[in-house]
Amino acid sequence: MGNTCIFSLPCLPNLDSPPETIDMKNPRSLQERELQLITLYSQCELGMTPQRFYAKWGVSYEQMAEICARSISTTRGWFRRGRYYRRPTANDLRHLALMDFLLESGEEVFEFLEHWSCSTPSRSI
Fold first, then answer.
1. Cα 68 to chain center, whole Å?
2. Among 19, 35, 101, which Cα is nearest to 67's?
3. Tens digit of pLDDT for each residue in 51-77?
4. CA 9 → CA 50, 66, 86, 95, 98, distances in Å?
5. So what's the pLDDT on residue 110?
6. Rounded alpha-carbon distances, angstroms, from residue 13 to 16, 17, 18, 49, 118
């Protein structure tokens, strides 16, 4: 199991439909910085609890459900106590950490995601 990190890293774009500007026959070579980033990412367990994300961003349960591709009842379960409590999965925690990074990163990330056509939903909740 890897180290627990207290920071978030950006998600990779969906390469199923890359922009026409990328030459798939001539990929960029990875430099030392990119190799270090891969190593760091692979050793980290990225995650942000729903409670911490909720307190930081003031989002609704519906918005958290959308971020994590979960039902609203599942996200509500993350905030319950006792036998009705539902533990978020590692994937849920990763989604929240990545969204936290995206929200912190502002306009630069927004333009990047717009360029990659991330505005089209790929799945429904």
1. 8
2. 101
3. 999 999 999 999 999 999 999 999 999
4. 18, 20, 26, 11, 6
5. 77
6. 9, 9, 8, 24, 8
**Confidence band for 105, pLDDT divided at 50, 70 and 90:** confident
Rounded Cα gap, residues 21 and 89, in angstroms: 36
- CB 24 within 8 Å of CB 18: yes
Length of the chain: 125
Helix extents (H) in the chain: 32-43, 50-57, 61-68, 72-77, 90-105, 107-115
What is the tens place of the pLDDT at every residue in 9-68? 444 444 444 555 666 788 889 999 999 999 988 888 889 999 999 999 999 999 999 999
Count CA atoms within 13 Å of residue 8 on its CB side: 20
Place of tokens 């929200």: 103
Give the tokens for residue 115.
């360029």
| CB neighbour list of residue 11: distance below 8 Å, 6 or more residues apart | 98, 102
Helices (H), 2-31: none
